[in-house]
Amino acid sequence: MRRRRHSAPLLTATALLGGAALTLTGCAAGSSDESAATDELTGRGPITYVSSPDASGAAQKSIDVWNAEHPDEQVEWIELPLDADQQRQQLAQNAQIESDAYSVLNLDVVWTSEFAANRWIVPLPDDALPTDDLIPATVDAATYSDTLFAAPYYTDGALLYSRTDLLTAAGVTEPPTTWDDLRAACDKVLALPEAQGMSCYAGQFDKNEGLTVNFSEAVASAGGTLFTEDGRPDVDTPEAKAALQFLVDGFADGTIPEEAITFQEEQGRQAFQDGKLVFLRNWPYIFKSLSAEDGSSAVAGKFGVSPIPGAEEAGVSTLGGRNLAIAANAENKATALEFIQFFTGQEQEEARLELSSRAPVYGSFFEDEAVTAKYPYLPTLLTSLENAQPRPKVVKYGETTAVIQDEVYAAITGDKSVEDALADLQSELESLAG
Amino acid sequence: MTAVPTAPTIRTPRTGSRTPGEGRRAALLLSPTFLVLALVILYPLISAFHQSLYSSESGLDAQGFVIEGDVFVGLGNYLEIFAGAESGRFYNALGNTTFFTFTSVALETVIGVAFAVAMNRAFRGRAFLRAAVLVPWAIPTAVSGLLWRWIFQADGIANALSGQQVLWTAEGFASQVAVITAEVWKTAPFIGLLVLAGMQIIPEEVYEAAKLDGAGAWRQFRSITLPLVKPALLVAVLFRLLDALRMFDLPFVLIGPRKSSVETLSILAWDSSNQLQYGAASAFSIVLLVYVAVIAFVFVKLLGADVAGAGEQRRLRRAAAKRGGVR
After folding, report:
1. Which of A7, A231, A402 comes nearest B27 by C-beta?
2. B160–chain A Cβ distance below 8 A for any pair
3. For the ranges A18-22, A76-80, A365-369, A411-415, which has the lowest average pLDDT?
4. Any bridge partners for residue A162, and if so which?
5. How far is A177 from chain B (nearest CA, A)?
6. CB A332 within 8 A of CB A47
7. How confident is the model at residue B324 (pLDDT cuts 50, 70, 90)?
8. Which residue from A minimizes the CA distance to B63?
9. Residue B123 in domain
10. What does residue A152 show for φ and ψ, rounded to 5 degrees?
11. Considering the domain boundaries, does residue B187 fall inside one?
12. Residues B150-203 pLDDT 10s
């Protein structure tokens, strides 16, 4: 660039290019509020299934079965990154550029509202799913604005893992149903000589989605909700105070060990598995590694599961899991719908449970004796799911969960008082709601 | 990042002035390069700047569906960054970025130079040491982030060795220390190797002469080694500065997103784009770009880092002039 004289034509060319770039992005920015035709799901042919990786290989098996039966309507799997935030971003970007590359989307239950409100996914016909056979909370999590937008794929709820061996030794026969029970049980267990060096209780308190889960669960378990029926934030309430106070007090008096502030799912599992905790709130998926008989688990055969405790009565779990939906810009929507029906159908769910231990969305499984013999936590999980609450059903879920994490984390690390944190959270959520 | 412009590129000696046709031909021959540069650098830049002037507006209609559209807000996104309600978060991230950059680059320069001095000596196993030193640099940052997370977790090695219960991966100063430790561990070898390359072209006779004059090891280092490796060192430090200013993966993986004590400008930009606020995200990126450019400019001006080899050219020219005079 030292010899400017000769680069003048080049500069013109670049300026033109730049101009073209401006026009291009200008177009892209302005034209995305046409609503997709949502009523008819037409078109048959090859489709894609866009999902998080599945290490168990169970989903691929289902797809193989479908592909063998439908030679003209093949399903191709597009695998997304493991990280949930990245999955969401990739799916949202694809919707924003109105690409038809993605047909069937595998959505975390908490994204469903956002995708539905943005019309990135289409409503499903009323008779598309056997909704009466499904666990009601899962259907609720797939519904937005009274319309079913997705099919529940698998579900997840909270369980309280407890050291039954120590509880028995301390003379506690029943798993705790309230927070006071939990503390009382801990007091007895921790007085035992064999419980030396142990802590009472932990959940997921690191600053990520797990904290939102644990907090909204605590609020629901104290009888409150984060949002009212019509979607207004409502966190500056006595119930939310009781819930946050439970967590803050837990950290202050050592009921919750100090290091639990760094716990995500895996760190908590490790601590419980190493025998450092009496109680742990976690998802069903850790059941398998806790019961491992190969010596990796110090608690195999010594632990039990129960529904999580609450303030006055048994607690209310947060609902986890995944839904399948049809992308608004997809072609061959008729095939997509049929594939979803096949994929989330009873037969495939049953076949997959074998491989993936993801909880099916059909209530009947949880009471099937052959199944529960193998997965003894399923009946408890069903209890947990029957009154489970979805996380906030809001359109801007990403920002909502971010401010919840900010304020709750500030409170449990002692940066803010419980009152201030909740008052700030309320005003921030209000400004997000607009 | 491996190509390092320490050695001057070979230049054909220029004699006399160019013919008029020569310049035009040069422009013609270079134009594909400029076209590619325009496509891969200028276009994204202009596009990002353009995007930063818009804000996505969203409201909900009666049925709860999003009414969306991008609105032109001019410099609104920038105003929001510098003076808006969330500006505290921006200044915090700016402070963190600056703090991480200067602390870690200072530490890794000192350690890197020490590495280089150690490796420049002839001793048994020198080759092995050189290869071993490169390992941290070769590991992808995200992987070393995970590695250090494992070391720093509540029941990790760091706490076991020190016998303390420090919660490194929570908030606060401890997490900043964790990030800087991992960063220095990873990048000191880079500086070490560049400086070593610079040291190896210093002729041995210079040191022998210094020894005869009675200069001690420290004096030799200060008066010979340091001035002679200065060009290489400055380029290495500049590279590290630019790299550290856009630090993202290490605090992100090691401590986690949106932890205010380790949030950098890049993480802030990522967070905005993750919330689908591409206008704000672009504005953050442009601000970061300007910041990086300013730091690079100041660094080059103040310390005279010879990035483009201009000094080398001047020296050659002077030498040529001297030869001409002698003749």
Report:
1. A7
2. no
3. A18-22
4. A279, A304
5. 29
6. yes
7. low
8. A145
9. yes
10. -60, 135
11. yes
12. 999 888 899 999 888 889 988 889 999 999 999 999 999 999 989 999 998 899
What is the distance between the terminal CA atoms of chain A, rounded to a whole angstrom? Answer: 50
Query: How many C-beta neighbours within 10 Å does residue B224 have?
Result: 17
Structure pTM?
0.81
Pick from B23, B34, B50: which is nearest to A25 by CB?
B50
A294-333, pLDDT tens digit by residue?
A: 989 999 999 999 999 999 999 999 999 999 999 999 999 9
Residues 6+ apart with CB under 8 A from B196: B115, B116, B119, B120, B130
Asked if residue B1 belongs to a domain, the reply is no
B245 found inside a domain: yes
Our count of domains for chain B comes to: 1
% chain B with pLDDT above 90 = 53
Domain that holds residue B294: 76-324
A376 CA: distance to closest CA in chain B (Å)? 31
Tokens 């509540």, residue located: B154
A433: nearest CA in chain B? Answer: B59
Residue A55: per-residue pLDDT: 77
With beta carbons under 8 A apart, name residues in chain B contacting A208.
256-257
* Residue at token pair 């095939």: A335
B70/A396 CB distance under 8 A: no
User: Which among A29, A117, A406 is the nearest to B65, CB-wise?
Assistant: A117
CB A322 within 8 A of CB A120: no
* pLDDT tens digits for range A52-109: 888 778 899 999 999 999 999 999 999 998 877 778 889 998 998 899 999 999 999 9
Give residue for tokens 């990245």.
Answer: A86
CATH code of the domain covering residue B87: 1.10.3720.10
ipTM for the complex shown: 0.76
Please tell me if residue B41 touches chain A, with a CB cutoff of 8 Å: no
| Nearest partner of A269 among A285, A253, A254, A252, judged by Cα | A285
Q: Do A89 and B273 touch (CB under 8 A)?
A: yes
Residues from chain A contacting residue B166 (CB–CB below 8 Å): none
Do the Cβ atoms of A295 and A301 come closer than 8 Å? no
Q: Do A32 and B276 touch (CB under 8 A)?
A: no
**Measured between alpha carbons, how far is A247 from A226 in angstroms, rounded to an integer?**
16
Nearest to A320 by CA among A227, A402, A212: A212
List domains and CATH numbers for chain A: 4-156+320-375 (3.40.190.10), 159-318+396-433 (3.40.190.10)
Asked if residue B147 has pLDDT above 70, the reply is: yes
**3-state SS string for chain A:** CCCHHHHHHHHHHHHHHHHHHHHHHHHHHHCCCCCCCCCCCCCCCCEEEEECCCCCCHHHHHHHHHHHHCCCCCEEEEECCCCHHHHHHHHHHHHHCCCCCCCEEEEEHHHHHHHHHCCCECCCCCCCCCHHHECHHHHHHCEECCEECCEEEEEECCEEEECHHHHHHCCCCCCCCEHHHHHHHHHHHHCCHHHCCCEEEECCCCCCHHHHHHHHHHHHHCCCCCECCCCCECCCCHHHHHHHHHHHHHHHHCCCCHHHHHCCHHHHHHHHHCCCEEEEEECHHHHHHHCCCCCCCCCCCCCEEECCCECCCCCCCECEEEEEEEECCCCCHHHHHHHHHHHCCHHHHHHHHHHHCCECCEHHHHHCHHHHHHCCCHHHHHHHHHCCECCCCCCCHHHHHHHHHHHHHHHHCCCCCHHHHHHHHHHHHHHHHC
Q: How far is B208 from chain A (nearest CA, A)?
A: 42
Q: What are phi and psi of A103, to 5 degrees?
A: -105, -65
* Token pair recorded at residue A78: 């597009």
